[in-house]
Design brief:
222 residues; Pectate Lyase C-like; 1 helix; 19 strands; 5% helix
Length: 222
Amino acid sequence: MRTTTVGDVTILLPDLDPEDLDQVTDLFDDEVRDVLFDGVSWRGGQLADRSIRGCRITSADLGEVSWEAGALYGCEIVGTDLSGATLTGISIERCAFTGSRFTGTRLIDVRLKDILFDNCRFDYATLNRVSAAGSVAFTNCTFGHGNWSSCRLPGIALRSCVLGHLELESCRLDGADLRGNRLHDLRTPLDNLKGVFLGEDQLSDLTRLTVEALNIALRAEG
């Protein structure tokens, strides 16, 4: 069993042997298992009720894909472009995403469990009603100008990420580990940060957020 730990979060990772995977280029069936997709392009494709299990997807172009319902389980996704994709109502479990791009991607009613996102870009991405049913971690990711709304992500880890101009709306993040991130450009009501874990070096950023949230005017004495 392969695991990794980010902060206090332990994630069960896929355990794939490339020698056991047959390389293919197309999704022929509603359920695909134990194959390698390398350098494929499904740009703009329409996927419905598809299940992809135990697969490795590398250097693929999945930009502007629309995927509704189905599951992604036990997969490794490396260096893959999902920019502009829309993922709706799918379950993603025991997967690792490395060096992949989610610029402008929309995740709607997506369920996450045992997921690692490492060195991924979520600039301008939208997460709406995304929920964590188990361990989830983001490391060295970028979330510039993204928007999270009505998400339920308790206990997740976001470590060493860039959160510049990320907007949070009606999100539940209690128990989330936000240590190692700059918060000064985070755009959120303070109640979205209820119960999160921060480091002492982030107190100045939290103070700035508080001053802005309460519309406090700072004036010099005299």
